[in-house]
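YM 10:42: Phage holin family protein sequence, as discussed on the call
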Amino acid sequence: MAEPETESIGALIGRLVEDGKGYAHAEIGYYRTLALSKLGEAKSGIVLGLVALVIALCTVTALLVGLIFSLATLVGPGWATLIVILAALALSALLGWMAYKRFQRMLGSKP
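YM 10:58: structure's back
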């Protein structure tokens, strides 16, 4: 009857390390595939969101031009342009200031 071969502790540890490396590589491959799959799904959502944003910006531009044309009949084209630009800049400054305050509050800074 032949005796079973016994491996040394060093050989067992070496095999354990190799098996661990193989398992880690398989896990990394799995999560990489999962992340790439989710990224592929998100890509179409991002593109649709960007298209919606561009359309919204075009709509705001059309609204501002319409306001200028409407006011131009009352005060002239130059004044109408100035009034709409100043109003848009004031609204932009107000919204920017509000965003700044919210970020300050979120970060814990005192205003």
